Structure formats: structure tokens, C-alpha cells
Amino acid sequence: MAPPNLLWFRQDLRLTDNPALRAAAAAGPVIPVYILDDVSPGSWTMGGASRWWLHHSLAALDKALREKGSRLVLRRGNAADEIEKLVRETGAASVFWNRCYEPYAVKRDRDLKASLKAQGVAAASFNAALLFEPHEIVNRSGDPFKVFSSFWRACRAHGDPPAPIAAPMTIPVPADWPHSNALPDLQLLPTRPDWAGGLRKNWTPGESGALTRLRDFVHETIEDYAGARDVPGLQATSRLSPHLHFGEIGPRQIFHAVRFALQEMRSAALAKSGEKFLAELGWREFCHSLLFHNAMLPDGNLRPEFDRFPWQKSGANLRAWQRGLTGYPIVDAGMRQLWQTGWMHNRVRMVTASFLVKHLLLDWRQGEEWFWDTLVDADLANNAAGWQWVAGSGADASPFFRIFNPVLQGEKFDSSGVYVRIWVPELARLPDRLVHRPWEASPAALADAGVVLGTNYPYPVIEHDHARQRALRAFQSLKEKSA
Known about the structure:
The protein is mainly alpha-helical. Helix content is 49%, strand content 5%. The chain has a 5-stranded parallel beta sheet, with helices on both faces. Helix 1 (19-27) links the parallel strand 1 (5-9) and strand 2. Helix 5 (148-157) packs across helix 11 (268-293) and helix 14 crosses helix 16 (380-391). The chain is globular and about 80 Å long.
């Protein structure tokens, strides 16, 4: 029998539009493997919410493989070392994988490919994670883009990405299977306490769940996307981000599903919404390009002058923000939605991040770390680039002096308080005009609503006008130091 080939799954936990799988299946018997690597230097160890998702995604992938007569081999340790061990154990002739674009992964994969080839083992990698590879989209000088609008125009000028490929009809199996860890042995699920009830209620990890969510979005939601996407009380966004991060669905699948809908329905509203949604895919591409070209993005300011920013240190304020107890209802609603479901509406992500950085003057990296641990869609590129955008320290960043007023943001995007009443139920009985500013309610209105400020809902941790002026002074001092 022909020697087997290793198929190394990473952030591509699907069978459809998986070029590495297609190539491995064409080459001969396939041993699919996933390696939980939480020891390699330079990598960010997955947070708790991501580990929960990964457990269920791996279970779904193994089920899909078994339906085709195959199975998923699980290992734990340094990924490159484990691949080399598996090559020796199985006598594999080739190793196939889809590329990751985090700088540490690029270096690891390059070194591994060279090592395998020196041993006479073929190694081939493919793009399954992005519409375009980061080195393909550069400006006329050959440099990476720093402004999103220019980047996305260059992407569109590049032409449509290739159409997704179907899953292989069959997956050849080896004569012998190597040892596999049991999924529970990876210890990905929380136990004491089990805090994942809200995640189980809200999500269905796996390729099937991803395809269902895409179908529902394209057929039921996308036409209103442009006008409703900023309203957190509506189910108006795709919620595909965790499925994309783990590769349960690929961006080419999403791109072409949206383009097909645009061609089929041909309405002005859909055209506007479809293009807006595709631009959000473009923002994801932009973030990955930034990380690919700037290895320090998750840890260091892209604009070095922010290294001198006078960040404050307050464990009490950080805890109030994390727990959704800042006294600003839209901020607290977002942080509680995050804790309970592992996800937060994008508009509210901007508001909560701005509050941490500009109202509380806490270092953006503290927010990045919290999101990394609590988001089911915690993506290193998106998370780092998003926080630097809010902080004003990144590429194409929101200016630091742009300071969201959390009350006005709540009143604009959650005017009737639907979102706040879901996630901050202690304010549910306040009238619409007060639900985003409970401290302005009369004693009688508070009593009627069952709200006791300072007891069952906090006073604001900081007054908005004072916070705004303090932030502007801090930014002015930064400019003076840079002069």
C-alpha cells in the first residue's frame, strides 16, 4: 500500500473549500491530524472561550471525517515536533496544510517545511483562510497598505477570489492509524465552575453550524444589513466571525454566497448591504495584512509615539469594566453580553473599548487580553488591530480625540433600550428616556423601576465630561512630548 500523507488541520476545521484536504486525498491515504499547541514560543495561548469552541469544533470535524470513513488524530505539544514524530511513526511521504499568517506561524511553517524536505518528505501548503494572501495586496511601491479604503480598493481591483471547491467525495484511509489522544484529554472545557452555559445556548460550533448561519444570513438578514448592522438590539449581523476564525467556513465561501445573492435578487437595498458586508470581509483581510507585516501588532504600538502615553493603573476600574458595572448602561450591557455569550455586537465593541481606553485611560492591551480570553471569535489579527484602531495607536486608526459619549451612543443605536434591558435587567423598568442615564431619574422614577443606585446598579465610575477633558489633556501631553 502507498505510504500515507499527513493532513495537518489548524484554523481550517472544515471539509469544504479545503485545498490541503483536496490535495492530500488526491495523493493517497490520508491521516488527518490536529495538534493542540499551547507551548510554542511566540504564540498566544487560546483563551477560555476559544478553547470551549475548539472542543466542539474538533468533535464536529471528527464526526464529519468519520462519515467519510476517516477520523481525526489528536495530539498535544509543540506542533512542529509532533508533525515530525508523526512522520517517523507513520512513514508519511508528504505533509499538507493550509497556511496561517501570524508571524510566529509563518516562521514555524517555513522551518518545518525545510526540515521535512531535508528528510525527503514532501510538504505543501495552501491558502484557505483569506481572500487574498497578504503579500499579494501591496501599493505601487510594493509596501503594505496602512489605510483600509486604499487596501480594499486594491483587493477589488485584484478581481474576485477563486470560487470555493467542494469537499472530496472520498478520503483514502491508511492501513494503520497512529495513536490519538481522546478529545477530553485536551482539557479544553471549563469544569469548576462550568461557565459555558451561555455559550452552549447561543452557538453551534462546526462546519454544519457555520453553513446554516451563512444560509440564514444570506436568505433572511442581509438585505437590511447596511441599515440595521449598528443596532445591537436587532439580530442584524451574520455572527459568522467565530466560524471564520476556526475555519469552519472560508471567506471565499462567504464572498461567493453574497455575490450570488446579489446577482439573484438585484435589489438596491441588497446591493448596498451586500457591498457593505463584503467590505467587512475586507476589514478582516486588512487586519491580517497588518499582523503579517507587523509582528509586534498584538504587543506594541504601531505608532511609536504612543509608547509615551500616560496610561493610568486602576484595578478597580478594570474590574468594573470587565464585570459590566461601570454605571453606563450601554457599556455594561456589552460587557455582560460578552461574558455570558462569548460575543459582543460590533458597535458596542467600539463603545466599550473606547470607554476603557479614553474614559478610564487604561492601556488598550488590558482590553485586548480580556477580549482574547472571553471572545469565541478571538482572532489575533482582528483583536489587536481593533484595539489599536480604537486607541489611536494603529494603522488607519480612529483619532484619540474621537471620544464616544456612551450615553449618546446608547440613545442613538439603542433608542428604546431593547439591548440594555436584555443585558442589564435591573434597569428594565426605567422609561426609554432614562434607561441610558439612570442617574438623572427622579427618586420616584427610580423607586417605580426598582432601581437603587449604588446598591443594585452602580453610579458612573467617572463623569463623562471630566473623563473627556482628562483624555484630551493626556493626548495633548503626548503631542507635546513628540514635538
